[in-house]
Each structure stands twice: as C-alpha cells, then as structure tokens.
Amino acid sequence: MRQGPEGNVTRGTTHPNRLRRMDRWIAAELGPALRRSTDRPLAVDLGYGAAPWTAVELLGRLRRVRADVRLFGVEIDQERVAAALPYEGPGLGFVRGGFELPLPVPGDGRPLLVRAANVLRQYPEDGVPAAWARLRGRLAPGGLLVEGTCDEIGRRHAWVALDATGPVSLTLAARLASLATPSDLAERLPKALIHRNVPGEPVHALLGDLDRAWASAAPYAPFGPRQRWLRAVALLAADWPVAGRRARWRLGELTVPWSAVAPRGGPLAGAPQGAGFRAG
C-alpha cells in the first residue's frame, strides 16, 4: 500500500493575482451551484505552490458569490504547508496532501471545487487520465475540477473543466492587450492538449481557425483589442461550437466543448465526456 501523499512536488512558482482570470471564470461558472448548496460549500486549491497567495485570492473571489465558502490549500511539500499556516483563518486552512485530498472536515469532505493550476504540466501525458479520475472521484454532486496552466503573471491561461463524469470544456483566456496572435496561447495549453497542437488534431485546427478569424478582424483593431477579439470570436462561432455569452468573450475568454478538441489518439482519446458545458 502506498504511503504518503499521491503525486510529485511541483516547481512551486507563484505570484499574487496570477490566477485571476481562472478564478473569475470559476466564480461565474460555479456560482449557481455555490448558491444552491444546502451545505457549507468546500473548495480546494491543489498544489498552490511556495506561497499561499492563490488560495487566499480564490477564497476571496468565491466568497463574493457565497460568503460561507470554506477552502483548503493542499500541498505535497511540508515546508510549503508550514509557510502557509500563518495565513490560516476562519474558513481557510492548509494541509499536506496530493491527489487523494486529505481534507480534515466532518462528513465525507467532498469539495464542490478542486482547482489544480500548473500542477499536471509537470507530469507525462499518460499520467493525466489517472489524475483526473482520482480528483473527479472526490467531487461533491454538481462539483467541478478545473485543471490548467497559465504564464508567470497571469496574462495567458488555458484550462479544462471536468465534472464527475469527465471533461466538459476547454477555455482559453488572455490579456488581450498583450496578445499578438491567439495561437500564442498554445504554449499554455494543459498537459492533456499541449502535445496535440499538431496538424490533424482538433486543438490545432481550433487555434489555426482562431488566428485566421483574428486576422480577418484586423479592421476592428483601431477600436482596441477587445473589439477585435469580439469580432474574431463571432467569426469563429460560425464554424465552432463556441459556448458562453458575449459578456464572457469581452473578458478575453473563449470556451468550447471538450468534444470539439478532444485528442484523436493517445491516452485521452477515449476519455469519457462530461455531462455538457453549462454556458455562463
């Protein structure tokens, strides 16, 4: 029997406000479930890194939706847990652990949210399905696992949302003023897709079509990058099942169902699909 936390120690790189784009999407997408919950909702920031900023910030953003949310930061490195303990407070705690999520709460301790940002990027692609399954198995009914990657200061993000049955959607998000072409986001694709940005794979086709839509939207550039992005996403939506409302596109986001970008081969080709995207 394996002893100790499940997983590997990550690099631990973290900066304040790094995950704001992901947090904003989570708060909007998970908001209805947070408000409906008859229990006090529980969230997890898995692999928060060498400093607890991202866990503290996530809790603050979720509490704008539901004031009694509790959150645990889970880290496999005991020194990182010790460094975070001074930041504990009502509804915020830090524990040592990994994919098993050893949450010290009464009852079954199942979280409504597990966020794993910049964790699986350091694993091999064939390790992703088992990690996803382990974490999905811990979710409370109606919960989400949000797993993805961003750059060091949060300008470029990509993440997969999963429910208890499988992957649901892929979201790309960017600070539009710093985006030369949308395919620049390819370097931040989550581990499940980053090696799939090659001809013949759906995610490669998505990024190529988004670049072409961005080029076609060049006449909107004088009105600012947001207007150009809105036009590009509208053009893309003619051929791709773009989800969500225009209000979300304005934030520099693009979400498509997982089924539109799922790998055609390899360990994730046969991954079960989630119940469907909840357009926010």
Automatic annotation (TrEMBL):
Q: Which domain of life is it from?
A: Bacteria
Q: Which UniProt keywords apply?
A: Methyltransferase, Transferase
What terms describe the molecular function in GO for this protein?
A: methyltransferase activity
Q: Matching SUPFAM superfamilies, A to Z?
A: S-adenosyl-L-methionine-dependent methyltransferases (SSF53335)
UniProt-listed GO biological process terms:
methylation
Please state what the protein is called: Class I SAM-dependent methyltransferase
Protein's organism: Streptomyces hainanensis
